[in-house]
Every structure is written in structure tokens, then in C-alpha cells.
Amino acid sequence: MKMQITPIKTKKDYEQALEAIDKLWDAKPNTKEGDMLDVLATLVEAYEQTHYPIFPPDPVEAIMFRMDQLGLKKGDLAKFFGGANRVSEVLHRKRKLTLKMIKTLHDQLKIPYESLITV
């Protein structure tokens, strides 16, 4: 497959790169096609990071998601927050998470720090 690889500058370039990746998907590593696949994937990743960034979830959304995964109710979080009132305040965005809450949620519920800390 003869192909000229150029920077991805437009949405059309991006779509063409995705089509080329699709055609090269089964290329063996350390071959000409495998190297082209590697370079195209790197270019697409850079384009996507710039044009389609994925932001970490809102801390409350992250907590609610983990609660759903574990089948927890609001009352189950009282021991992590220091009481049911604090749980309610945090989940209704009336109170910010404290460092102690963040550490406890990370340690006990395995919620990533990146999801609990907002900048």
C-alpha cells in the first residue's frame, strides 16, 4: 500500500486517516504497513487530544457513578463524609469535598483522585 502520510489539519484529513487506519488494522508489526499504522495512530491521537479532549468527570458524578456500580445508597456514604447531612450537601453541590473526604473516597471506594479533585 503506497500512502503519503501528512499532518492532520482538518476534519477531512482526520476522516481519511481513520479510513487508512481501518485498512491497515491487521498489519504486522515491524513491516512497512505496520509502521504506517503506528504513525497514523499517533497522528490521530494527537488530533483527537486537541479537538476532542476528554475531561475527567465532575466529582459528584464520579461519586454517583461509583455508588451505582457498588449498589450503594446515600446513607452508605455517611461514614465516609462524617454524617448523612454532609453526604446530602456534597451530592447536591452545596458543600465541596474536603481533602479528608477525597482521601477516604479514594481509599475505600477506589475512586481515582483525578475524578475527585477539580481545578
Q: What labels describe this entry?
A:
mainly alpha, 434 Repressor (Amino-terminal Domain), 119 residues, 2 domains, 7 helices, elongated
Describe this structure in words.
Helix 1 (11-24) runs antiparallel to helix 2 (32-51). The radius of gyration is 22 Å and the shape is elongated. The model has no long low-confidence stretch (mean pLDDT 92). The termini are far apart. The protein has helices at 11-24, 32-51, 59-70, 78-81, 84-91, 99-109, 113-116. By secondary structure, it is an all-alpha fold.
Tell me the helix content: 55-70%
Strand segment tally:
0
Kindly identify the CATH topology of the largest domain: 434 Repressor (Amino-terminal Domain)
Structural category is mainly alpha
Unreliable residue runs: none
Write the layout of secondary structure elements.
Elements: H1 11-24, H2 32-51, H3 59-70, H4 78-81, H5 84-91, H6 99-109, H7 113-116
How do you describe this structure in short?
The chain has 119 residues and is mostly helical.
